[in-house]
């Protein structure tokens, strides 16, 4: 069995006026190419959403490096979306 990490996620606790207070940001999410398409990234995002709900974050943002943002790879999940994702209804 391969005991190497399959990926990682960086989850940051933030605070800002535009966000209405406390929120989270996923600044990095990487899954090894040979381990992709197995639901690992989705599992990590669900864990981030669960953590955000526990911390009463107003939103969860997903950042991307500048070259990715130009292609539209940015996402923000508002409070309602966090609650729905945490319940598994989104």
TrEMBL record:
Superkingdom: Bacteria
Record domain N-acetyltransferase: where: 2-51
Signal peptide region: none
Record-linked SUPFAM superfamilies: Acyl-CoA N-acyltransferases (Nat) (SSF55729)
Gene3D superfamilies per the UniProt record, alphabetical: 3.40.630.30
Name of this chain's protein: GNAT family N-acetyltransferase
